[in-house]
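Example 3.2
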Amino acid sequence: MNRREFIKVGGAGLFTLFLSGCGLSMFSGENADNAKANAVSEGGNMKIVVITGSPHRNGTSALLADKFIEGAQSAGHEVYRFNSAFEETHPCLACGRCGRDGACIQNDAIEKNLMPQLLEADLIVLITPLYYYGMSTQIKTVVDRFYARMGKLRNKKSILMATAWNSADWTMTSLVDHYESLVQYLKWQDVGKVLAVGCGYRSAIERSEFPNQAYQMGASL
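Structure, written as tokens:
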């Protein structure tokens, strides 16, 4: 199995099966009209932080990020993008120096560039390829560093997007479970998910409906 895995639009909608350019996939979620009716921005513009985890600048998950940002900006939202694979980042050392509410001793791009944006964000979007049924190391490094501002990063909105090669119905289970645990712990409000199975390479996802779903999710906020 190739390491990359699936994307799916999530929500409380009805499950339907369909054939896409990426193969047999499962779609779950509200359509664009319902999403607009339940817009999370409550009529105002939001500050959105998009964090990507792929080491491929033009990969499958990068396309989802591009389309989501395009949609969100078309709706008037402010978007900051952090491509974790191409930034200087360092893992949490569990040293406790931050006290879970202060500056990290690692004065890298996470601390200097990303963290100020995260603290001001209304919505945080995590976009990753599926690696061994979880998020990539690059984006997990960023997530671990949330520890330094744990209290101040609570009560935000969030979205998960991911891409994968496999198309089994359990492909995204572990990733989604991890994300939902993060949402519960940080008291975030999950806005939705775009999870794409069977999209292991760029041309495959380009033929699918997933890029449009990512665009519509951004545009409907």
